[in-house]
Amino acid sequence: MTGAATSTTSTIEWANPAPEDVPAMVTASPGPASQMWNARMERHTAGSVTQMVKLHPVAYESGHGVTLTDVDGNRYLDFSSGIVITNIGHAHPRVAEAIGRAAAELDNVHDFATPAKVRALEALDDVTPPGMSLFTFFSSGTEAIEAAMRVARAITGRFGFVSFHNDYHGRTGGAASVTAARSSNALRDAGSYLVPSGHAYRCTFCAGSCDLRCATFVGDSVAQNLPGQLAGAVIELMTNGNGATTYRDGYVAEVARQVRAAGGVVIADEVATGFGRTGSWFASDHEGIVPDVMALGKGMGNGFPVTAIAVRDEHAAALAASFPSTSYGGNPMACAAVCAVLDVMRAEDLVGHCAELGRRALAQMTEMAERHPIIGEVRGRGALLAIELVKDRSTKEPFVEAGNFVYRAAFRRGLAWATAGHILRITPPIVMSFELMAKGLDIIEESIAEAEAHFGM
Ligand SMILES: Cc1ncc(COP(=O)(O)O)c(C=O)c1O
Hints:
This protein has helices at residues 11-15, 32-45, 51-55, 81-84, 93-105, 115-127, 141-156, 173-177, 181-184, 213-225, 251-261, 283-287, 316-321, 332-347, 350-371, 400-412, 434-454, and strands at residues 60-64, 67-70, 75-78, 134-138, 160-164, 192-195, 230-236, 265-270, 293-296, 307-311, 375-381, 384-389, 415-416, 418-420, 423-426. It is α/β, with parallel strands linked by helices and 457 residues long. The chain has two domains: 11-78 and 350-455, Aspartate Aminotransferase, domain 1 (Alpha-Beta Complex); 95-348, Type I PLP-dependent aspartate aminotransferase-like (Major domain) (Aspartate Aminotransferase, domain 2), CATH 3.40.640. Strand 7, helix 11 (251-261) and strand 8 form a beta-alpha-beta unit. Helix 6 runs parallel beside helix 14, helix 10 (213-225) packs parallel to helix 11 (251-261) and helix 16 packs across helix 17. The longest helix has 22 residues, at 350-371. It is globular and about 60 Å long. The protein starts with 10 loop residues before the first helix and ends with a helix. The site of pyridoxal-5'-phosphate has 14 residues, from helix 7.
């Protein structure tokens, strides 16, 4: 097996300890050493970290597969993957070896060709949709979004973008302009504006019967706001930061149709959803669309900062005209990481494993929802899942205090994970075993029961 973690062990065997061995807590969490390292970090960062760190300030020392060990020696089950990054587990031997070898051979030759870069380009071509075989490498998801927007402007000769409430694309000029200000804390460029998305649970367009007005609204709105000026739409096909938001069947395809009818191109932000995370290579596979440009990141380097755009072949001239080179994009270590990750994933069919992991998890979460009235919705695909907590199922009022409570209670029990207020985010490495996924969900259920008792529900 060429992609195995070692010559004798598959990635899933290597990544997953026996369920009785994790979590293993030796101090309260966060323990004294975690608190000390966080205090020293705070001195130089002024608390400019996410709410997740503020709520439960752990400091980590090491990771192995689907586990993380903190500086106090507590071993956690990883339900976050470093915010949807370490898809095939922490410290994968094949990836570590590939990066180390590349570092010992050649650091950087800007955008000259190297065998590593060509192999990484060809590996990407093997997994992206047919007819989408043009790529440029970058170092962050935000950079890839910016580049995708430049390509869309080069294709259309237009400037404007439409994007969607609750999607997140990054914090620099263009990316922040297509992100809700509440998430990016930035003003947007003139010509970029947002519309409500058709989030199935919280759709603002219809109650009950659905005629996909949420999707046709995009065309009407472009006609009002950017007539003849639309370069494209930037869309998360399932949200990451907003907790695995899913849409009604046909929504994404209809949005794509509306955008193209208005002369724009479709940019799929697959920074989080790409590389197997949703149980398919890309979330666009589920939607039956081929975007014009995809922004890729996170899982493609499994932690090494490497991202890319994928562009349809017919847009070759626009890609060249957008002049996308960077200092670090496509460096030998980055490309070695991409090749190792894709080799392992394909050889062991980890995408297929992730699809089944998600089916089983969603079944367990659905049963959990029947037992707990605080749960408004469970949702997601593959290893991009979420539980939304509400004060009342009929009003769907978000229960942020309960979300924070459950987040901390599960962390204390040894679940390292992520939250967004009332939305609990479940994004383990895609290689997690079915048994450990079930165990992590049990920990969440115990913590939800504790919250219900605490808030008198
Ligand atoms: C969907 C999506 N797009 C873009 C980004 C930005 O990527 P980065 O943080 O690597 O710049 C993120 C980051 O979380 C994301 O989830």
